[in-house]
Prior knowledge:
Layout: H1 5-24, H2 32-41, H3 45-51, H4 57-65, H5 71-77, H6 83-90, H7 97-103, H8 109-117, H9 123-126, H10 135-143, H11 149-158, H12 161-167, H13 175-182, H14 187-205
Helix pairs in contact: 2-4, 4-6, 6-8, 8-10, 10-12, 13-14
Amino acid sequence: MAFSSEKMKRIFALLVSTLFLAACGIELPETNEERMQLARETGDVELLHKLSKDNNQGVRANVAGNSETPVSILEQLSGDESQTVKKYLASNKNLPQEILQRLAKEEDQKVRWVVAKNPVTDESILEQFVNDPSLNVQVQLAKNKALTQDLMMKIIENSGTSAILALLDREDLTREILNICAKHVNEKISEKAQALIDGLESRRQQ
């Protein structure tokens, strides 16, 4: 992937800064913006450990979302009081399932919908969101890129209209799924599914 010269300069400057800080053990950057950038892009474990204890929740959140952050630090951040930190944590593609399971039980629906949308979340955890009290969480589940056909069926059978309509926006639906939705009692769902079927038939005949 190509980067602009300005982007390359910023990455190089950050790398030099990271190595220098790690080697010399000097103070972290003073501004929140600089520390957030460092937390987001560094892979140095010692720096990540220091930044994970920062007073600014934005800095800690970026540590939580960093794919280079070690599990021990992610575990520590799972107990953070900030919901922002937990949302970033829930989006981390390297997060252990044990932590995702705990985050899936958070009262804050925004944390739950990030867990529901994370493609690495185990199916047994995702299944909990089929009947989630928040329709927003159900919708995010329907958008999960790693959703199995079995879970799609459970969404059709148990989730709200918004979630099923979101499911119908996917490009990986089988004809079986579409046929079932086309017979749904909800008119919006059945009409949308039938329109998709008609579109498939039209393209097939061309």
